[in-house]
């Protein structure tokens, strides 16, 4: 059965959609004669066609195709399609079970124990905007206005098992982003999903490279690039969270990626648990890339008629190198991932108590910190770990979300009231997902922690992880969080998560569903965070996972900002923030000025350098102001005032990476307003060059070449062309750790 503009909904799938069908739908063309789908972005095209045998083939993803190009691509493909060896084709979503032995997008186990499937095209529908799938429990991109996006839904059926498969493609044409996902509906016999990827891509033969963001605790998102040689390559997390070890993001490029030139294909998963982006360079030279839920130690049982949804995966195309790609991804996050009142609102500049006091504080210390925060011009004080149970170190009390009256005799409520009376906002740290073996909660409910019955559980940071798959666990956590939001009038929560998941098991699930638990955990987490977000839309929640261990687009659907890294050292942060900027806008990356010697690296970096690194993100402080020297405090205060004047650029401007610390001795970047009339640029030189070396200019990017820009606080002006080709020589002083900023505005 085949759909058309006049008959868009095809029988065969009764999965419910919320948005009614309306015609005509822009950005998606369907050519019924050639069974050709064309998703049209402003500068990109995504082209697919149904083969005469019902298999969907990928014809093109990349530069924009005009009508003659589409015809040419289709003609070339049509000449090959009679070849029944599927491994020779570029396929859209290959299932295991044919003469295509490349890594499949879909792998099922049927009731009879067989694992072969073959899904044939049944029809399609084209919808304005982005339909919401009912009750799938996963976060996804938004499309507030129907003109933001159009969605194509393709329907398939496995002729033998009767399973139905829907593939969704939502195109955001202005950003050249296609968001994909898959939805499976079980046929009349029960079975299991072994893998259901969100997106699958078949690139033609070429010298393909992958850029990834591996790391570790305090070393998140380090840029790495490698050639994809023949064979299979996996970027993944098996750690239960998206993880410090690797971010759920990759860029595929032809040849080594260039910052300003060449095609870049970005892949960002909207998922926060075990994920996989795999690439297989086939013996033919073609490249297949699959992205989605990790199939490692995973299986999901489906009863007849039950459905299973993959997470969403965003695919972005740019012909302007990594820089062009990042700007599209940043805009995607700002407009279609972040939501609620905090999406556009300027965030409070906070002072966090962690590095100032760790676990050792009393009511008066926090009141004193608040007084200092007020004097210096901050907006909010955040009481980090140590306020609950009897938590004097990290070996107890997680789960006991009740005031520690020995530290806070007036309770959190009394403390919050005093802080608020000073005209400040007040925030509190929680680690809802964790439980200490030494806690009242664990003594009462040992079965609430993830563990395999009969096996020794092991701790990490002296803690276990709660089974968020269980509704009663989530209800308990919600009631404790809601209590503090309401009772103490919290303005902010820092939601932390400090360990990986291992020994994942639960007595609440039957044997045949144990392999579902890692994913059920993430679904439970999303449900809990969603409940909090919906009940308290004004509450600002900052994500954290031992720093930036779960900083992904899934979490950003709930937390509009994330603690980028526990490493607050100015030098290390340059690498971390530069790497993070590949797919995360500055607005979402929190960056704190901390004291020296730095608590993680023991390095002594001057305050200007430290401050300018933090000003390049979502600024805050993590410093004992009572101990800070007066001169340094004055300087911090000055930078905070300055930040208020320029943060519209940091938050909403286009970000341009000018010099990479990974490739040279300096780092430089700039933020340019959308109308190109304002610029804020930063340059960092960690190590003084050899004597006698001629200083090199920093060349700006993203300006209007014909515009004349005036330098703030000076009489000089420069044309955009001059700034971009000749550049400015930084006025770095002598010694290591020099930093400079420039602010320019069109006259
Ligand atoms: C994690 C966080 C830190 C801090 C501590 C508290 O490590 O990343 O910022 O909140 O926990 O224990």
What does this structure look like?
With 747 residues, this protein is α+β, with helices and mostly antiparallel strands. Helices cover 20% and strands 28% of the residues. The protein has twelve helices and 37 strands. α7 runs parallel beside α8, α9 runs parallel beside α10 and α10 runs parallel beside α11. 54% of the residues are buried. The structure holds alpha-D-galactopyranose. Alpha-D-galactopyranose binds next to loops.
Name the beta content range: 25-35%
Low-confidence stretches: 1-22
- Helical run tally: 12
Largest sheet at a glance? 10 strands, antiparallel
How large, in whole angstroms, is the Cα Rg? 27 Å
- What compounds are bound to the protein? alpha-D-galactopyranose
Shape: globular
Number of strands: 37
Helix content: 10-25%
Class by helix and strand content? alpha+beta
How confident is the prediction overall: mean pLDDT? 95
Considering the chains and any ligands shown, give keywords for the structure.
747 residues; alpha+beta; ten-stranded antiparallel sheet; eight-stranded parallel β-barrel; 12 helices; 37 strands; 20% helix; disordered N terminus; binds alpha-D-galactopyranose
SSE map:
Blueprint: E1 28-31, E2 36-40, E3 44-50, E4 56-63, H1 67-78, E5 106-109, E6 119-128, E7 150-158, E8 164-172, E9 177-185, E10 191-196, E11 199-203, E12 208-212, E13 224-227, E14 231-236, E15 249-254, E16 264-270, E17 275-281, E18 287-293, E19 300-302, E20 307-309, E21 312-318, H2 321-337, E22 350-352, H3 354-357, H4 363-376, E23 380-383, H5 411-421, E24 425-430, E25 434-435, H6 440-444, E26 464-465, H7 471-487, E27 492-495, H8 517-535, E28 540-543, E29 561-563, H9 570-580, E30 589-594, H10 607-615, E31 618-622, H11 630-652, E32 654-659, E33 667-672, E34 678-685, E35 708-711, E36 717-719, H12 720-725, E37 738-746
Parallel strand pairs: 22-23, 22-31, 23-24, 24-27, 27-28, 28-29, 29-30, 30-31
Antiparallel strand pairs: 1-2, 2-3, 3-4, 5-10, 6-7, 7-8, 8-9, 9-20, 9-21, 10-19, 11-18, 12-13, 12-15, 14-17, 15-16, 16-21, 17-18, 25-26, 32-33, 33-34, 34-37, 35-36, 35-37
Helix pairs in contact: 7-8, 9-10, 10-11
Alpha-D-galactopyranose is lined by residues 354, 384-385, 429, 496, 498, 544, 546-547, 563, 566.
